[in-house]
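Example 9 (inverse folding). The structure is encoded as follows.
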């Protein structure tokens, strides 16, 4: 069996680290073709020495000693601003997209044009330009197998089934760190309090987005694009135990759910080995210890970002891109301590309402909307 070549875009984040753990268990099936990172040069250096990739990208300004990176002699070296060029230069079978934010859009499109398998853990690219990405994927014969646990669950529940029988999908959400907290306490919450997610240790941006529930709103837009759904076919349900990763409901009333231990290595491995299912080495669910599975309807009065995301999903055009861009700027301002937690929604809503939506946008329209929204958000924060 020929080893499949894998490029990990964002190898030093949690998804990238877990992907390398999966690959490390399956050396007979995969080899690491490329790694990219931003500022965590120390960890990247250890990864390079262990996996010896042929393509590497990172923030060159952060490198004190290039020899200390441990680059193999024939490795091609790119700056972090040249990730798309790295994608275009290598001949990989699978691209794991673990870059956060809108910076993933260009590499996503570059990978799609190579007709490769793309395993995205990034949802922002599909939020920004989902229609363009899906059209490019179809044109060049690429495939997308999502890593996000919710989208992976939907993918698995729909696998091999007639889509005409699908009624809707149900995206589960843990509820985030504020699920049981009174809304009156929200304005006084510190960055440290928000970053204490009850279940997972994630990057700062996605942890804040989980607290506002806009992350689940982004997943609504992502699922709409990935599975060709109408917004009315997507429902969000709060499931604090986080054992059911998402569900599909069919016209006859049957509901299929994908369950499993909460470990990102499961959807990562499935995206890499699809359609094969291999031993993951992870523990399985012990149903004898599962005491209850609870579900709640999300309260959009307490978490208005979710309703705003549904609105942008229904409108389409450049609005989802604007939603994402404004949120990136607003969350960054909160993390820097320049505004309160509740100001995130205020800023994002105002930017969305000010935007003149452009339907059926081309890529240049998406990029222009992204630039406009970021500046509009900065102006409001000032």
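The amino acid assigned to each position is listed next.
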């Amino acid at each position: 069996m020929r080893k499949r070549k894998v490029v990990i875009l964002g190898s030093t984040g949690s998804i990238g680290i877990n992907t390398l753990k999966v690959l490390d268990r399956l050396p007979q099936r995969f080899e690491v073709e490329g790694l990219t990172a931003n500022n965590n040069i120390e960890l990247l250096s250890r990864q390079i020495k262990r996996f010896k990739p042929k393509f590497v990208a990172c923030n060159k300004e952060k490198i004190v000693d290039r020899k200390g990176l441990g680059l193999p002699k024939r490795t091609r070296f790119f700056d972090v601003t040249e990730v798309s060029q790295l994608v275009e230069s290598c001949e990989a079978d699978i691209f794991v997209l673990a870059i956060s934010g809108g910076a993933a859009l260009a590499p996503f499109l570059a990978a799609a044009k190579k007709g490769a398998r793309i395993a995205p853990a990034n949802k922002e690219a599909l939020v920004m330009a989902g229609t363009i990405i899906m059209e490019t994927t179809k044109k060049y014969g690429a495939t997308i197998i999502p890593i996000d646990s919710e989208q992976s669950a939907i993918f698995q529940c729909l696998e091999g089934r007639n889509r005409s029988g699908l009624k809707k999908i149900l995206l589960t959400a843990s509820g985030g760190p504020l699920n049981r907290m009174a809304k009156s306490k929200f304005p006084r919450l510190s960055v440290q309090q928000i970053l204490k997610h009850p279940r997972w240790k994630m990057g700062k941006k996605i942890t804040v987005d989980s607290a506002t529930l806009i992350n689940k709103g982004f997943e609504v837009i992502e699922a709409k694009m990935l599975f060709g759904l109408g917004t009315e076919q997507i429902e969000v349900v709060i499931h604090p135990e986080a054992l059911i990763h998402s569900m599909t409901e069919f016209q006859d009333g049957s509901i299929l759910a994908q369950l499993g231990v909460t470990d990102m290595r499961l959807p990562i491995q499935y995206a890499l080995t699809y359609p094969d299912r291999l031993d993951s080495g992870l523990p399985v669910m012990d149903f004898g210890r599962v005491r209850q599975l609870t579900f709640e309807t999300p309260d959009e009065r307490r978490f208005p970002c979710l309703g705003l995301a549904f609105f942008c999903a229904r409108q389409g055009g450049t609005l989802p891109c604007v939603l994402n861009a404004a949120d990136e700027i607003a969350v960054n301002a909160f993390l820097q301590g320049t505004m309160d937690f509740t100001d995130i929604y205020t800023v994002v809503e105002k930017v969305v309402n000010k935007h003149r939506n452009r339907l059926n946008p081309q890529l240049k329209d998406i990029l222009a909307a992204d630039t406009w929204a970021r500046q509009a958000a900065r102006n409001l924060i000032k």
